[in-house]
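Example record

The entry below shows one chain as it appears in the dataset: sequence first, then structure tokens.
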Amino acid sequence: MLYLLSPAKSLDYDSEAPAIRATMPRFLDHSAELARDLKSMKPAELEALMGISSKLAQLNAGRFDDWREDYSKPEARQAILAFTGDVYQGLAVEEWDKEDFAEAQKSIRILSGLYGILRPLDLMLPYRLEMGTKLTNDRGPNLYHFWGSLLTDSLNKELKGANDAVINLASNEYFSSVQPKDLKSPVITPVFKDWKNGQYKIISFYAKKARGMMASWAIRKRIASPAGLKRFKEGGYAYDKSLSDDSNLVFTRKA
């Protein structure tokens, strides 16, 4: 199975990282195209394009100025160690051993506006480029047009057909870069709901963290089938059969 995650805006390139192997992203030539377009933009243009503060625009203008294809450690960091948002707090990779990282490298794929798809151990330079950014490029008016079928084709090369599955733990913004109807394996989407005001609701902060927890749990437990995901009980969540269907596995939690 392949587990799809979104990246995070928050990054960590300063803390001590575990000594694990590193790989290079598969779409660096495509990333270079985007970086060239972004390098040509002034901070004020990046501010307007991305809807960010002038301070963040200055920071990212400098990042794109420095971006290149031929990079290595220590300036770069493995993606799963660089991202620090809610999903990655849920992953809790500080609890993993080397075998867990190796399993994650086979099973987790991180969708990225700049890199397309990152494996957990792929080295990346610090950047900010959300998949929904309307960056006009030679392939179209936004990043969805830029990546086209590339990401779907890449996933298909790793999938084993109808007996395999894609576990969608990404946000709608990032999963929209994939073409589900063209995948040769079914897509299963876990949904996490918390009890609030008399009903179960998706609460963004908790749902993001739960996605990371599920990916981490599945990696550490070596879950081999979508049915096995129903055993997930981390963080107080439990599978709710009455709210689920073949494509959506719903997990609920009461505070």
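Notes for this example: The mean pLDDT is 95. Residues 49 and 134 are 7 Å apart (CA to CA).
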